[in-house]
Amino acid sequence: MKAPVLVAGSANLDFVVRAPHVPAPGETVLGRDFATFPGGKGANQAVACARAGGVATRMLLALGDDPYATVLEAALVDAGVATHIVRAPDVASGTAFICLSDDAENAITVAPGANAALRPHHLPSLFGVTHLLLQLETPLDAVASFAHVAHAAGVHVLLNAAPATALPPLLLQDVDLLVVNEGELAALAGPGTLVAQMSRLPVPCVVATLGARGCVARRGGELFLQPAFRIDAVDTTAAGDTFCGALAARLAQHAPLADALRFASAASALACTRLGAQASIPARDEVDAWLAAQVEAPDHKAALAAYCGITGSD
Ligand code: RIB
Fold this sequence. Notes:
The protein is an alpha/beta fold and 314 residues long.
């Protein structure tokens, strides 16, 4: 099947408990309601890309030999994602254990399960693929190999370097666009202002997501600032994944970077207003309608620029 965006990565069934606060080490917290949701950074990003519309989305993933696999596959198919599934016999599908606090904070522990079975030779044909979207919940050697093969084939490689980990030395040379949060950026680039950190990375375009502040991108010598939209967050799980998938979809449709950042920020903001990972990801029409009603205040941009360490000379 010809699909311009290929996502390769993880799929997890999320086990979510709501609680007054996230427990500290050694603490037991009495939570409240429990629910399961399809999740996993890779699958969430594939769903976000498909829901952003306008571009066919395919996903390479590995699933286990259990009933969770059926749920995870169905969620992707329902969202319109074409799947390329590696079946891992005698292994459980990926799972994630999430404590969600009343102030919308979370703590997540992932049991990779079948996600660990994804190997370099599993990359499907790149015929018709223009953008490959990767994350770091599957084995690093496979991620690096997928990036290398795709880059050599002229495919745009987008990497969301999450969760934070040390990267194989040559991986960033094969990346066209890197998406990181502040912690991930500091882990890769060391200390300094955000713009200094971004300029230190050998990637043509770096996007730093800054939670409730918004995001900043550096492409060559150009800087792009997108303040966050104001929302009442109930669950920030998959906010970053929604951003990445929506961004990939818009870029694959040749949207200018500033427009793609605005759309991705809006999709991510809307996802924070609902429970669950894939369950929270909005569709294109909803994002467009919501965006049409938003007014961006110039002082938000100025505050974001100051936070990023942007001076008049940047
Ligand atoms: O980014 C959110 C995701 O991280 C969750 O859906 C969970 O599965 C973990 O992978």
